[in-house]
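dumping this here before i forget
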Amino acid sequence: MEQKTKILVVDDTEMFRMLIRRVLSDHTECEIMEVESGLDCLRAVERSCPDVILLDLMMPGMDGIQVLENLRTQYNAIQLPIIMVTSKSEAEDVVNCLKKGANDFVTKPVHHETLVTRLNNQLLFKRLSVENSRLKEIETHQKMVATYNHEINNPLAIALNAAQVIKTSQSLDQLKNLEDALWRISEIVKKIEKTTLAQNAAVDTPVPSLLRKAE
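structure:
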């Protein structure tokens, strides 16, 4: 199940935000959110975490580096990809952004195809990371179910044997063994149900889609 990709554009210049809307206007899969300050960015992320952020480096008040550092205390680079947008292309500035936790950067004036490609790269990496995590969860789940199935065999054998003995001799000791075995089976079945529900919830979690051009 795919969700609509949410892109948060953070820039204090309305003209730039308008440009980004136009650049992405041919891509039907994305929802564009816009804010004009670093503080508004933090609030927007808290309300509805986007799939990727385009974050301006130079802003009055809280600049892009401060916003980046703040967000990285809560989200890692896979959970929340951040692409820095800057008019400064010096290597020192780029390296500083990457050291602080940025996933990538683009320079102003923004080249349209470069922007879309870099957005897609981050969305693809995020998708692959999510799907890889799901595969690992499925593998873990399968191993747990196999273990629980093995655990069931022993009490089940005891229960069947006790039932047979009780049928022929009406032994109270065997009745107690049967009761204990059935309770053990019940607990194992609950464990299997719990892990299955958790696995189903993980599989149903939507992942962000790549940007696609409208037909």
